[in-house]
Amino acid sequence: MDLVLHPSGSDSALSSNYRRAFAQATTLFVVSAYLTEWNKSLKLGPNCDKFRIIVGKDFGVTRKSACVDVLKWLPNSRKGEFLVADGIAGFHPKAIFWREASNRAFAIVGSSNLTRAAFSTNHEANGYCEINSNAFDAVEQWIARIESSCVPVSEDWLARYHEARPSPGRSTGPRARVQPTIGFPLPRPAGMVKLINRRRRQLTVYAKQRNGLLSLFRQCAEGEISNADFYQRLPSFWSSEIGDRLQGAGWERKGANSNFRTLSKSFLRIVEATSSDRDDVVIREIDRLGKKGVPSRKAFLSEMLCLRFPSEYPVLNYPIVQYLRAMKFRAPRSATEGVKYIDLAKKLRFSLRENPDHPAKNIAELDTVIWKKYGK
Q1: CB 159, CB 206: distance < 8 Å
Q2: Cα 155 to the chain's mean position, in Å?
Q3: What is the pLDDT confidence band of residue 174, given thresholds at 50, 70 and 90?
Q4: d(C-alpha 20, C-alpha 18), whole Å
């Protein structure tokens, strides 16, 4: 391990290593207890497939202006990769981890945050080293666990976040349960238990049809059947008559003439992705389908994802969007379709985590409750 001390009286090795990480990483994780400034001159390289900035909010130290700078710095397709540990009390790391195209991985861990002073005038001590693949895998798993207690930073989140000066006397006793900046009260409409039980039966029926439906997607993706054949055979595995269709009729008006081959390829990439990479793959595939003008990327694809991963992904429908509007917690401005969808998924996951006593135990079940409350 190399020890990087500041001020050193020479050019900043810390600064050069940070710039290398942003320029050369294929996977990059930045975790910081707080964010008071953002270096907008940093350039994220074109080969970075996975990127996360996760900051804490303890004691109100994180500054809104710094968060706004990050949101402006991020391209639209990465607006959802800036997260705040809203459900964690005691989020205090200061580290950066990255992997490069050569498959070599590195870490910088120490006292420095992301201010200019941390790279120049402050007295700081940091360690820089190469780490092996097992260690980097452990980092990825750690980040995934942290993400489950995070929400995306957005203009709506910042509007409700309160900056404050750090308290001079910080308690070292047991921590109280942290309160998120924006609460997620889940609706409890009359009759919801009956609806949840019905949704569970639908998921049970889907489980019996899943392999056949997946085979249909593979046949279409590989060109063994045409788009018209896919559409014609689809009701044999997914329909209201069978009992595994979650939404009513509607998507067929535009979806009947959809490019199901392109959509099937995207769906299979999502299914075959690792759990830690799946959200990123979903964003890329939805945005790719959007650029190709595939209309079935919304209602149809989102239902396929909700059925396949009921704890991870929602059906993209009007009531779900209305719920987030009612909570005043929308996605970051200018975010792409894919980013907005995963932003929604992350918030619904977080809402279930914050309401463990709610009868709905996954997003698919929560969908039918929200539909009852916010549907037309």
Answers
A1: no
A2: 16
A3: very low
A4: 5
CATH C-level class of 2-160 = alpha beta
Q: Which residues have a Cβ under 8 Å from the Cβ of 142 and sit 6 or more positions away?
A: none
pTM for the full model?
0.89
- Give ranges for CATH 3.30.870.10 in the chain: 2-160
Non-local (6+) Cβ contacts of 321 within 8 A are 344
- The string of pLDDT tens digits covering residues 90-147 is 999 999 999 999 999 999 998 666 655 555 556 777 888 999 999 999 999 999 999 9
Burial code of 207-238, b = ≥16 C-beta within 10 A, e = fewer? eebeeebbebbbbbbeeebebeebbebbeebb
- DSSP character string of 271-314: HHS-TTTHHHHHHHHHHHHHHHT-GGGTHHHHHHHHHHSTTT--
319 is written with which tokens?
Answer: 């009531």
Of residues 311 and 248, more confidence is placed in 311
Pairing of strands 50-55, 105-110: unpaired
What residues contact 24, with CB distance under 8 A and at least 6 apart?
45, 47, 98, 100, 101
| Site of tokens 């609460």 | 183
Q: Minimum mean pLDDT among 63-67, 151-155, 287-291, 294-298: which range?
A: 294-298
- 124 beta partners: 6
Cα–Cα distance, 120 to 138 (Å, whole number): 31
Radius of gyration of the chain measured on its C-alpha atoms: 23
Cα–Cα distance, 332 to 82 (Å, whole number): 10
Token representation of residue 77: 């397709």
Question: Exposed, middle or buried by CB within 10 Å (0-12, 13-18, 19+), for 17?
Answer: middle
